[in-house]
Amino acid sequence: MTPTPKSFLVLTSLLSLAAVSAVGAAPRALEHGKLPADVRLQAPKDLNGYFPFTPAESREAWAVRAEEVRRRILVSQGLWPLPTRTPLNAVIHGRIDRGDHTVEKVYFESSPGFYVTGNLYRPKNVQGRVPGVLFAHGHWKDARLSEETDVKLRAEIATGQERFEQGGRSRFQAMCVQLARMGCVVWQWDMLSDSDSRQFSAEIVHRFAKQRPEMNTVENWGLYSPQAEARLQSIMGLQTWNAVRSLDFLLSLPDVDPERTAITGASGGGTQTMLLAAIDPRVKLSFPAVMVSTAMQGGCTCENASLLRIGTGNVEFAALFAPGPQGMTTANDWTKEMSTKGFPELQRHYALLGAPKNVMLHRGEHFPHNYNAVARSAFFTWLNQHFRLGFKEPVIEQDFVPLSRAELTVWDAAHPEPKAAGPDFERALLKWFSDDATRQLTAAAADTSRREKELRAGLEIVVGRTLASAGKVEWREAAAVEAGDHRRVTGLARNATFGEELPALLLVPKRSDGRLVVWLDGAGKAGMLGADGQPRPAVSRLLATGVAVLGADLLFQGEFNAEGVAPKQTRVVANPREFAGYTFGYNHSLFAQRAHDVLTLVKLARAGIGGFVAKSVAVAGVAGLGPVAAAARAVAGAAIDRAAIDTGGFRFGKLLDYRDPNFLPGGAKYLDVPGLLAAGPAMPLWVAGEGASPALVSELYRAAGAGARLTTHTTGDTALAAAEWLAR
What we know:
This protein has about 725 residues and is of the alpha/beta class.
């Protein structure tokens, strides 16, 4: 019988306990009471941390870094590979003539049944193609349909934030009207849950706080669930896709010049501006207002996604647009220190790329957090300069009579609003994206060139490190003793680049043939030894055939645990909202960190440990660490000569808690564990725990003419069987 998700978890827990009970105490690399000097024992980073940007030393170095960060954005948004561009089926209606411009109502489908709504402003009496501007509103009440109160408007006029009692009532309309008067086509669309976009509620989009049991199921999941996170599905990703499709829509208009396309937005709209400008080369000018900062990175659930800001941040996202013309603004908010922290580095970055005048900071720390008339004027002037519109500078908007909510509302009797979406819509939409990605990635896995560019490239971001980026490793020996037919060496495997330190145990047979196996066990290095302190049968078999064995306590195994008990849940940030992106948008998961540890061990084995330099390096993953071994192998390239992996039938897509130590954002999207196995090179591979070898893996080896290199094990002691295979 196939285990249910709950029984699956219980089974794996029991197996882990059994593994631990079968081993004794391994020799320590550190004295009792002392923990490894590992930076990962510090509290995890959250969105309120410090996110500096360090300019690259050369254009060549930046090209490499930019590719990685841009790919990180796309992967984190669920856009690697890009979803299938289905027909927009755009409907434009309700034209209102305002003399010098028109306003129209628009809706289209960014994916089947998923609607984007907004208003289209077009200039009149122009010839030829004109600039196109995307305007992403932020988190303001009523957003596109907002109307300021008399009291607040008068206060804003008194402080110089706004100019007019009429036009100042809606800063969003004011922006669009002025741009249309300047000869631009403007598309202002709704963020999810705002104005006419009501297929997702504000509670889901902006205020999500607690997991929904009914949406946390293996087959029919909803947003924020472990299943969605394992497929990199998020509100932020849906909004980013809507931004991509908004640009598709804008460029589909015959009067828009594709060489003069701009995007602007403030606050949450600034986040969308940064991201779209970073990932889509069709954007030619960017102006994120009151958002770019080395401080707070975006507090809303709609501005965060797992994997997004690990090792990077908003200033570097802005840097990805260089050398394209980019302006930004500050206010009396988290951006107030941008002039001294972040912008000077951006200036040096633009200078490196030969465009020092293409980045601008308009300072507005004397104003509160908004996109006021003064900041809008800075954008108009910046656009005028770089698109050569020919207006006298500074460009200051003129007054106008705002349209009413009824005049701007997209839905009417002739164009009825789609049925209010509930759980079924949410599930169906996520399934569409999941099925689409699976189709693309399955096809990619069968194609050598695409497998590297799509499957493995995505997994490199998911795992978070490759062997090439594994850093500088070193060995610090603690003790070495003779133990009959082998020598036992304890010490610390250190990753100096990342500040990581692993207590390790190396067993070297006296008649070594130069081969080495990195032995990965759910019990850490203690899994190499039995209750009597002697090597377990599997390890003994390797030693007897001349193979050295290296084991270690990966993060939160063995000597990492002061109380001697491994944590049952991975750590999360203090934010009370149950959203994985608040933790794993800024920190690697425990699963990924353990895969990093494996890469450290492999790299160290290649470099040499205590005078022993391996001629070949194999990896064995048993007793719950098979998937970790598979992840490391997927990104290690040819550095791992052979691998024996017992998956235990594990699947990321079956986890029901994002706090599970085996949770990996994106783990299920890239074809789950079979995808990990298929992403690695067609080197000798032994697989257990799967019954028959996954079809994806079998096909890969068959196509590579390497069918004999793939071995499947189905019965008996998997650890001993793995050792027998590795010993050949």
